[in-house]
C-alpha cells in the first residue's frame, strides 16, 4: 500500500503541503496513522505539480524514501503551486522497484496515483490487460499493478471520459477480477477525482484555503471528513461532491 494526497487552492510552497504538516505525507513515509496494509512507505516517492499558465505538470520522483532526499527538501522549500499530487510508496510483492514505479504517473495534463494492490498480479490478470490496445500496454511506465490501473484510466480519459467517470468505471472493471484494493487519485490541475475501495481517504475543504484530499489527515485540526468505502469524490477549489460507486 501507499499514502497519497492532492491539493487545489491558493499557490503555496510544496513544503507546506507535503513536509510541514505534523502528520502529513512526509511523516507518513515512516509513521502512517491509518494505513491498513503495510507499515512504512519507503520504496519511492513522487510529487507532481502545476505552474501558473501551464497545463502540463512537472514531476519529481525518486526510488528511495522521501526523507533521505536532500534535493527534494530544497525543491519543496522554493517551488510554489496551486495544484499538486504527491505520493509515498510501499511496494507490492511482484511489482518492479525503482523510480519509474513511483507515483505520480503522468500523461498530457493528468497526474495519477494508486494506493492499493491487485491480487494475482501479474499472472492472473491477462484478461484485464487484454482489454487495452497493444501499443498502450507497451507504453506502461513500469511493470507494476499500479501502472496497469493507470493505463486503464488513461484509456478512458483519452476516449473523453470525465475524471470521476474514468476512475469509477476502472474500479468497477478491475474489481470484477478479484478482491482488489483501489484507492485512486487523479487530477488535471483544475479538478481532483478520487476513489475509496479498500483503504482510507479523507478531505478538508476550507473557504480561501482550497481543498486537500489525502489517504489520512495531515494534522489534528478540525474539518477533516472521512469517506466511506466504495466512494467516488470529485473536487474543485470551490467544493466537493461524493457518491457511492455502484
From TrEMBL:
Any one Gene Ontology BP term: ergothioneine biosynthetic process
EC number: 3.5.1.118
Database matches in SUPFAM superfamilies: N-terminal nucleophile aminohydrolases (Ntn hydrolases)
Gene Ontology terms for molecular function: hydrolase activity, acting on carbon-nitrogen (but not peptide) bonds, in linear amides; transferase activity
Pathway per the UniProt entry: Amino-acid biosynthesis; ergothioneine biosynthesis
Matching PANTHER family: GAMMA-GLUTAMYL-HERCYNYLCYSTEINE SULFOXIDE HYDROLASE, GLUTAMINE AMIDOTRANSFERASE DUG3-RELATED
Protein purpose: Catalyzes the hydrolysis of the gamma-glutamyl amide bond of hercynyl-gamma-L-glutamyl-L-cysteine sulfoxide to produce hercynylcysteine sulfoxide, a step in the biosynthesis pathway of ergothioneine.
Protein name as annotated: Gamma-glutamyl-hercynylcysteine sulfoxide hydrolase
Gene name of the record: egtC
Amino acid at each position: 500500500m501507499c499514502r497519497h494526497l492532492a491539493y487545489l487552492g491558493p499557490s503555496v510552497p510544496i513544503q507546506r503541503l507535503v513536509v510541514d504538516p505534523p502528520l502529513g505525507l512526509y511523516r507518513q513515509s515512516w509513521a502512517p496513522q491509518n494505513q491498513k496494509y503495510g507499515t512504512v512507505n519507503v520504496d519511492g516517492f513522487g510529487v507532481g505539480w502545476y505552474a501558473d499558465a501551464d497545463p502540463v505538470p512537472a514531476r519529481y520522483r525518486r526510488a528511495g524514501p522521501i526523507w533521505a532526499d536532500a534535493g527534494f527538501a530544497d525543491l519543496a522549500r522554493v517551488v510554489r503551486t496551486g495544484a499538486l499530487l504527491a505520493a509515498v510508496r510501499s511496494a507490492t510483492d511482484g511489482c518492479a522497484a525503482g523510480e519509474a514505479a513511483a507515483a505520480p504517473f503522468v500523461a498530457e495534463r493528468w497526474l495519477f496515483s494508486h494506493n492499493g494492490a491487485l491480487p494475482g498480479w501479474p499472472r492472473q490478470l491477462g484478461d484485464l490487460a487484454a482489454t487495452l490496445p497493444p501499443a498502450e500496454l507497451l507504453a506502461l511506465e513500469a511493470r507494476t499493478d499500479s501502472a496497469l490501473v493507470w493505463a486503464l484510466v488513461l484509456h478512458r480519459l483519452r476516449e473523453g471520459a470525465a475524471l470521476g467517470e474514468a476512475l469509477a468505471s476502472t474500479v468497477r472493471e478491475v474489481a470484477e477480477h478479484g478482491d482488489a484494493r483501489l484507492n485512486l487519485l487523479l487530477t488535471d490541475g483544475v479538478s481532483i477525482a478520487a476513489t475509496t475501495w479498500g483503504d482510507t481517504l479523507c478531505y478538508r475543504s476550507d473557504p480561501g484555503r482550497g481543498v486537500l484530499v489525502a489517504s489520512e489527515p495531515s494534522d489534528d485540526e478540525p474539518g477533516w471528513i472521512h469517506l466511506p468505502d466504495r466512494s467516488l469524490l470529485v473536487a474543485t477549489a470551490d467544493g466537493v461532491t461524493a457518491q457511492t460507486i455502484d
